From TrEMBL:
Annotated SUPFAM superfamilies: PP2C-like (SSF81606)
Boundaries of every PPM-type phosphatase domain copy: 92-312
One Pfam family of this chain: PP2C_2
Name the record gives this protein: PPM-type phosphatase domain-containing protein
Length: 474
């Protein structure tokens, strides 16, 4: 698979006109962690009845049922259109215990009639404190959102995206307080609220008036014409967990959290922000990002921890290398604007990519995997009754990262087995031979050449409009 990707990606860089070279028209991000300037009117929670919900791994935030109160039982309602799962990509040791236990990721998704909330947290490091930090963050955020969002339209008042963003930012503080109270360490956190627009939004981002909306009330669904959007995704993230949308009509994946690392390489071994005890008792909000993206019914919003998205990174897959800016006597290129040249691709075994190209190809591979996972997906029409499952997407992404990291697990298990054998065989220890050896260097070189990154991996997905009684897709 990796050889095929090397060939395809080199060909893409040389010959392909990439549509992503143009800025995203449907994604708006605020500056310095503030919400975007655009604002849209949305429906509130509507019926307070929870239509779907799940959390994990294991019992997830239901562990805090004594704090969650009567709503804790509502987090055990998995459906085909709202689903999540966590797994470990680490190797199993000689004792039969998997490295990195317990899983330090956590997720939760709660679906109301016209509003859906997804969250993913990734505890920094291993152990119970990291697991506790992630679960505390998800619990603090999701419980605050479930409590506050329904109050936006309690008295018949209208809600807008600005109000939702203010509640989401306060949810970050709620998550931070729970982490401190539960003595967690540090964790990332990404939250996405998917809401239905009161009136459609045109392709240029302008929301039509109520009168115009009534005139087009009997028009075909928005995804059939492609002229209007009827849903919106609001995302807030801290750290390197990420949010994405699979656009059903365009058959392409876009990152909703792209602004948090725009113009830079995503570092698979470093988180640029974290909640918890990051700066004493304060969080590190260095890459706090708020973004809004317009959606259509049938699109799929999914959140992942870095253990998933990093295994789509061409550098982690060992199919490309980083391209650094070249300095000439009169011009110094910015890293964010560097592009690969023919010389860069021919010189050396791996193609050299800048940050923008790396992101594009990462999204290409993610799109290919999503399309393969949603193999039943066909171009939707107004009369199409074909549906697909969020469960298929989640399992497809996790299957991909498991395959990518298989070599890493085999190598780690072989290394442990060799060490155990060396300890048992005392003949390998001889004072007549020099103690220094290059075997460790050879071992490290081999490890660096193996693609993949072992980590905890989490995906939670939601099909936009899924479960609505008057929905058109499901």
């Amino acid at each position: 698979m990796l050889d095929r990707l090397r060939h395809c990606w080199k060909k893409l860089i040389r010959n392909r006109p990439n549509p992503r070279n143009q800025p995203l028209q449907l994604l708006h991000s605020g500056k310095d962690g503030s919400p975007p300037s655009c604002s849209y009117d949305i429906f509130g929670v509507g019926n307070r009845t929870v239509q779907a919900a799940c959390t994990g791994p294991d019992i997830g935030i239901s562990e805090y049922s004594n704090l969650f109160g009567s709503a804790s039982h509502e987090l055990k309602m998995e459906t085909d259109w709202a689903y999540g799962r966590s797994t470990s990509l680490y190797d199993v040791g000689p004792s039969g215990v998997r490295a990195g236990e317990p899983i330090a990721d956590c997720f939760a998704v709660v679906r109301f009639q016209d509003l859906n909330v997804l969250t993913v947290a990734d505890g920094v490091g291993w152990g119970e404190p990291s697991k506790r930090a992630a679960r505390s963050a998800v619990f603090g955020a999701i419980s605050f959102l479930i409590k506050e969002l329904p109050q936006l339209t309690e008295n018949g008042s209208r809600a807008n995206t600005d109000q939702v963003f203010q509640i989401m930012l306060k949810a970050l503080d709620s998550a931070q307080q729970v982490i401190l109270a539960q003595s967690g360490t540090q964790t990332t956190l990404v939250m996405t609220v998917v809401a239905r627009l009161t009136t459609p939004v045109r392709r240029d981002g302008i929301q039509v008036s109520s009168a115009a909306s009534k005139r087009h009330h009997d028009a075909p669904p928005s995804y059939a014409s492609g002229k209007y959007y009827r849903w919106v995704a609001l995302t807030v993230n801290v750290g390197d967990s990420a949010a994405f949308v699979y656009r059903r009509v365009e058959r392409v994946v876009e990152e909703l959290t792209y602004a948090s690392h725009k113009g830079t390489f995503r570092d698979p071994h470093f988180t640029p922000g974290a909640l918890g005890f990051a700066n004493g008792r304060d969080p590190d909000l260095g890459n706090l990002t708020c973004s809004v993206s317009l959606l259509n019914e049938g699109d799929v919003v999914f959140l992942t921890s870095d253990g998933v998205i990093d295994n789509f990174n061409p550098f982690v897959l060992k199919t490309a290398r980083q391209l650094y800016p070249r300095v000439s006597c009169d011009v110094q290129s910015e890293a964010s604007n560097v592009t690969s040249t023919a010389d860069d691709l021919i010189d050396g075994y791996l193609p050299a990519l800048g940050p923008h190209e790396c992101h594009n190809l990462q999204m290409d591979l993610l799109t290919l995997t999503a399309v393969e996972a949603l193999s039943k997906l066909s171009a939707p029409t107004a009369s199409s009754s074909q549906s697909f499952s969020a469960h298929d997407l989640v399992e497809g992404l996790l299957t991909h990262v498991m395959k990518v990291t298989e070599g890493q697990r085999i190598f780690a298990q072989e290394k442990v087995a060799a060490r155990e054998a060396a300890i048992k065989d005392i003949k390998l220890v001889s004072t007549e031979k020099p103690l220094l050896s290059t075997s460790g260097i050879r071992c490290l070189s081999k490890e660096l050449a193996i693609p993949g990154k072992m980590d905890h991996a989490t995906v939670v997905a939601y099909i936009v409009g899924g479960g609505r009684k008057n929905g058109t897709s499901h």
